[in-house]
Amino acid sequence: MANPMILFCDGASRGNPGPGAYGFVLYQDALVVFEEGQCLGEVTNNIAEYRAMIRGLEAALKHGATDIIVKSDSELMVRQLNGIYKVKTPHILTLFQEAQALLRKFSSTKIQHIRREENRRADALCNQALDAV
Predict the structure, then answer these.
(1) Cβ contact 78:109 at 8 Å
(2) Among 68, 76, 83, 98, which is most exposed with the fewest C-beta within 10 angstroms?
(3) Are residues 64 and 105 in contact, defined by beta-carbon separation less than 8 angstroms?
(4) Nearest-CA neighbor of 111 among 119, 103, 121, 120?
């Protein structure tokens, strides 16, 4: 993997479902390339997590990434995308397929589960978006 862009992504809902948002940060060579946090309306936590990753992948492609490492504290999403868990919920399946289609646009990909403490900036962007509502 030649000089990959690194995507840290996080999604949350206050209530499940409830008001939700996502946040993500893209890094290249330890520098922030782009970051974003946005509200999603009424969603579940899993939908917010997938939306964070999808928006982050779209932004990575716009910023010229060819190789990507995705880091998320959503164990469920990471395990689904790595083929460990099956996706059983229809509305999550649509998001899963959208994420897979975006991942196929990169030369190489790696999706890693990280501890929540390692995802502070994406989490902060997510919460800023929710607090602004």
Answers:
(1) no
(2) 83
(3) no
(4) 103
- Distance from chain centroid for Cα 63: 16
Residue with tokens 């975006």: 102
Say how many domains are in the chain.
1
Give tens-digit pLDDT for 11-66.
Answer: 999 998 999 999 999 999 999 999 999 999 999 999 999 999 999 999 999 999 99
**In CATH, what number is assigned to the domain containing residue 95?**
3.30.420.10
Cβ contact 23:123 at 8 Å: yes
For the full predicted model, state whether its pTM sits above 0.90. yes
What is the domain range of residue 22? Answer: 5-131
Task: Sort residue 41 into left (φ over 0), alpha (ψ -120 to 50) or beta.
Answer: left
b/e burial code for range 19-32 (CB count within 10 A of at least 16 → b):
bbbbbbbbbbeeee
Contact 19, 130 (CB under 8 A): yes
